[in-house]
Amino acid sequence: MVQIITDSTCDISHQRLEDIGxxxxxxxxxxxxxxxxxxxxxxxxxxxxxxxxxSEIPTTxxxxxxxxxxxxxxxxxxxxxxxxxxxxxxxxxxxxxxxIAKDALGSDKIWIVDTNQVCTSLGLLVxxxxxxxxxxxxxxxxxxxxxxxxxxxxxxxxxxTLKYLRKGGRLSGTAAIVGTMLNLHxxxxxxxxxxxxxxxxxxxKKMISxxxxxxxxxxxxxxxxxxxxxxAAEENLxxxxxxxxxxxxxxxxxxxxxxxxxxTYSGPGxxxxxxxxxx
Length: 279
Fold this sequence. Notes:
Elements: E1 2-7, H1 14-20, E2 22-25, E3 28-31, E4 34-37, H2 44-53, E5 59-61, H3 65-77, E6 81-86, H4 94-105, E7 110-114, H5 120-134, H6 139-150, E8 153-158, H7 163-167, H8 173-181, E9 184-191, E10 194-202, H9 204-218, E11 227-230, H10 234-245, E12 254-257, H11 260-266, E13 271-276
Parallel strand pairs: 1-2, 1-6, 6-7, 11-12
Antiparallel strand pairs: 3-4, 3-5, 8-9, 8-13, 9-10, 11-13
Helix pairs in contact: 3-4, 5-6, 9-10
């Protein structure tokens, strides 16, 4: 058998991960001197409440090598091989921790994929991998397939407020004030493993429609599902789903919640889509 292991930036709920048989190694979130384990003693809902009320700018930290070593060893003890599907190594040291753990165990039954993705695009890859395991894919087959799909996975995220980009140092105070006055919403993507600003939208409806325009321009491989995520923004999520349903079959799509890693900089109101680009 093959055990899929991922990290908590996949933004798939714990219940869903359990249902599809995926093990999650969580990142940690720090609000000042308070430390939380993402998804375990800090839910997404609680995170956004802290974000609204706590003056401290939160920070996140990668899992320790020991955390991965425990997860790997548990799978190996069952006789499973491991395919570990993780956040971009350019955004987090999570991949490095996983490699340190693999080296410590000295096992050739652990396959680590640096997806160069995060959030919806990472979550979608995990969902695809879990389905392939049920279909009988080997670890080697899965490693090569997910590595190839990682190069075609795409995320676009529309950010409702500029406040947290400014607080997190990703945007100047002046730019944030001007953007807010003009009702501008940045739309970001991940390219070559890094988060980049790709467009701006004026107003919420335009923000959602641009997400679809960008996906159309890339070319969606409709043999794979979409993944939609939101951060304390169910209204935006439904607007996005309705907008995409006009042109695509989203009935087999997945839904998740944007967690602390992306949420630290986006704040509440974010809506993100993930899909696979045509070859």
